[in-house]
Amino acid sequence: AVVSTQSTGGPILLLHGWPSTIVEFYKTIPDLVEQGYTVVAPCLPGCGFTPSPRVPGVSPFIIAAVYASLMQRLGYSRYVVHGGDWGSLIGQMLTSLYPERVSGLHLTFNRPSPGIRLLIQTLIGTILPGLVYTTKKEEDHMHPISGLSEKTYKQGAYFHAQSCMGDSIGYGMTDSPTGLIGWIGACYALASSSRDPTKTMEENMDEGLENFGIDHVCAMLDVFWCTRSAQVSMRIYNEFYWRDLKAFQSTYFKDTPVGIANFKNELF
């Protein structure tokens, strides 16, 4: 935790995702502290400088409970939570489990839980978008469905691979810097590019690295390489897929203020 000498902002819990690390926040933390916030930014279990879980079952819901316990032990009974990627899901789970502790939730990654309501809205939006979407930007984000499905198919393969065979992939990343850069570096490059269909994959990846900053990506990779945590850090995918997927669909909170930021070329 980085404790501010002022007491104007209160505590804020920053939660990263994968393949991110706490390095993601190294520019943000000084600004928050200067504004009076006390910042707590833990690594995901097994990712970077946090010890690896010794037993199976450390899923996002369990991690949410662990982070709530961490904040309680630090003496913070009420705080703001920010999360992106896995941090977003964990933040939503934490808010659902302990709504009385979370004074506000801020996300840079938000995916609605699948359900019949979302399905009906999507189908109606295909025929009569004016009944479902208030802006052209919202409509373009979801339609055409074929384009959204193609994007998910092309860029979601890593999720399935890491959910089912994460340890197998991890051996190469732990043993070889080339393997680490080849897998995680590609995730950064593609995720932060504009994904322009008129460009080749190599051009999109070059754009993504330029957007994110090659030095910053290398700093992220250094954390995984120096701590030998790339393999175990991916187990959160398996834990979520097999343990938490259905439970997350019932995640619900209604009284907590929520803000969602959708920045251009947002990573996760």
Short description:
The protein is an alpha/beta fold and 268 residues long. It has helices at 28-34, 60-73, 86-97, 116-127, 136-142, 145-155, 157-175, 177-191, 201-212, 214-227, 230-233, 235-249; strands at residues 10-15, 37-40, 79-83, 102-107, 258-260.
What tags apply to this protein structure?
5-stranded parallel beta sheet; alpha/beta; 5 strands; 9% strand; 268 residues
Structure notes:
The chain is α/β, with parallel strands linked by helices and 268 residues long. 53% of the residues lie in helices and 9% in strands. The chain is built from twelve helices and five strands. The chain is globular, with a radius of gyration of 19 Å.
Unreliable sequence segments: none
Tell me the number of helical segments per DSSP (H or I, 4 or more residues long).
12
What is the residue-mean pLDDT, rounded to a whole number? 82
- As a percent range, the share of strand residues is 5-15%
